[in-house]
Amino acid sequence: MSLASVQRVMVAAAAVALTGLVHAADISGAGATFPYPIYSKWADAYKTQTGTGLNYQSIGSGGGIKQIKAKTVTFGASDMPLKPEELKAAGLVQFPMIIGGVVPVVNIKGVGAGQLTLDGATLAAIYMGDIKTWNDPAIRKLNPKLALPATAIAPIYRSDGSGTNFLFTDYLSKQSPKFKDNIGAATSVQWPVGIGAKGNEGLANQTTQTDGAIGYVEFAYAKQNKMANVLLINQAHKAVAPSAASFQAAAANADWTHADGYYLILTDQAGADSWPITGASFILVYRNPPDPVATGEALKFFGWAYQHGTQMAADLDYVPLPAALIKQVQTTWKTSIAAR
Amino acid sequence: MDQASAFVVIEPRHAARQRLGERIFRGATLAAAVLVLVLLGGVTIALVKGAWPALSHFKLEFLTREVWNPVTEKFGALAPIYGTLVTSLIAMAVAIPLSFGISIFLTELCPAWLKRPVGVAVELLAAVPSIIFGIWGMFVFAPVLQRHVQPWLIDHLGPLPGIGMLFQGPPFGIGILTASLVLAIMVLPFIASVMRDVFETIPDVLRESAYGLGATTWEVIWKVVLPYSRTGVVGGIMLGLGRALGETMAVTFVIGNAHRVSSSLLAPGTTISASIANEFTEAVGDLYTSSLIALGVLLFLITFVVISAARLMLRRLDRKALSSA
After folding, report:
1. What is the Cα–Cα distance from A324 to B2, expressed in whole angstroms?
2. List of chain A residues with pLDDT < 70
3. With b meaning 16 or more CB within 10 Å and e meaning fewer, what string describes B91-112?
4. What is the mean pLDDT of chain B?
5. Looking at chain A, which residue has its C-alpha nearest residue B257?
6. Which domains does chain A have, with CATH numbers?
7. Residue of B nearest to A186 (CA)
8. Which chain A residue's Cα is nearest to B250?
9. Which residue, among A117, A124, A156, has the nearest Cα to A140 in the 3D structure?
10. Residues A258, A255: Cα–Cα separation, whole Å
11. What does the pLDDT read at residue A8?
12. Which of residues 151-180 of B touch A (CB under 8 A)?
């Protein structure tokens, strides 16, 4: 290699490094994959209106938390809220941005969408391997009119760490003390039975291929693929179907005003219409941001999304926050974030 | 340098410039070689540093425990190590004989008109990205296995003593066996094309002399072609094994991702790289992240041991060949 070509390569490398700086005015964020489609849709609309773009890396909640703690991004996004003491230690403020739900889906011969009813304890027993066939008395008791086959149950779980896993296991832990003691709630857990599929698509595919399978996917995924969803019995002993309305009911019934740092997991909420496996996706920013202007820009974007993003969210089967909650969040911004 | 200049008297200035050019060239190649060492060293240091919290916390238990529980933060690497070794082993057991067949056919037995199409097909197979194999494995291959192959295995081989324990449980479609077979297809073109290339380097004189002495095709293959190209063949196998050990995406799609060690090949399992790919993005907490990096260290070690073992084996073979000659 001649000197001239060495120089050329170095110039090219420097040019590549510099292109990253051209968009320095954009808002930068990183984190959860679950809200990525709606964040990018909002960002597109926001950019055409204001000229400010969003650079969001959907690297997962764990990655988002790491990046905001390392101060490499203006905001982090997580499906799992940080505990108040952890927020305080890191000097972070957290608020909910968008709501979604997790839906159990089944593949049983002769059972269509919305026909099978389950409750949390039964679901937990299935995923612990205690209930092994679909005609088990516990399932028959909840579905007296349904002809259930003796097919073996094949539980399918998400193998990749995800907010979906966290919501599902958190719900099962609240419903079954045995599940809580033996397995617990986290983005990845050690499942005693079943098979792990990667991502919503992998899980949906494995469920449709396996006779007697049960799995759980994000609501948008179940709806768009017309999967056979399950009805769940909520805290008010009512069987509810997953829908935007039942997710919003869970969010509206939750007691946000007393939740320190918005640390509230929306599973198993009170209310006759509440879907029990609902969850919010959260945003993390610094209380005293290293770059107050950038954080101010980010908050402007989130405020715009609260106000104008409702229809876009509904189009993608996400659920916007209830109006009262939005007002509360915006007060938090004013009182506890030193942004400009 | 063109030829004409050899007849001209070389000017001192010209010669000095030439020497400078040579010195720079030597420096550049040295820098490139050293860069590899620096990179390898850097990666090793970063990995060990990242893995240290987990390794010092769990000590040897990290290698021997099957549990992988992010909730209680208890981590053991037995299941991923087992899965990595078993899938690679089965993949090699399937891929080596097939590659050998392909390359022997292409170099020794194939009619000339078929040589190009089969050769190009093998090379094209090597160019398919691993994610494509993963998607194909999950959507096409696994359902076929689930419906047509696995039920037969369970019914006919499952009840047999001994071997039966390899074929237990429900036919999920995905699992250790499926991952191994997809891996076998993925490493096949690498091994086959390397083997073909080394077989082709054998001088025709050798083959013709053997035939001239009255050797059969079989004897030529086993007594001339193989001994002559042994180093290259083992190199090709190692290349394939290296890929099988580290393959991530395709395996993640079809292995079932369960941190369990089970005797049945139809059961779901996991490999080191699949575990990292699955869990690293959402891993919260230092011990969890560190345990995943520790898995990476283990993969590094396994690959290193395998390659060193292959080198040692080759050296021993060569020595034996020398002493018998």
Report:
1. 83
2. 1-24
3. bbebbbeebbebbbebbeeeee
4. 88
5. A196
6. 3-99+283-336 (3.40.190.10), 102-262 (3.40.190.10)
7. B71
8. A198
9. A117
10. 6
11. 53
12. 170, 172-175
B31, exposed or middle or buried, with CB in 10 Å at 0-12, 13-18, 19+? exposed
- For the stretch A249-296, pLDDT in tens is 998 888 888 888 899 898 999 889 999 999 999 999 999 999 999 999
Q: Do the Cβ atoms of A209 and B283 come within 8 Å?
A: no
Q: What is the distance between the alpha carbons of residues B122 and B99, in angstroms, rounded to a whole number?
A: 10
pLDDT tens, position by position, B149-201: 988 888 888 888 888 888 888 888 889 999 999 999 999 999 999 999 899 88
Q: Do A190 and B170 touch (CB under 8 A)?
A: no
Cβ–Cβ contact A282 with B under 8 A? no
- Examine the predicted complex and report whether its ipTM is higher than 0.85: no
- Chain-centre distance for alpha carbon A99: 8
Cross-strand pairs, A284: A76, A94
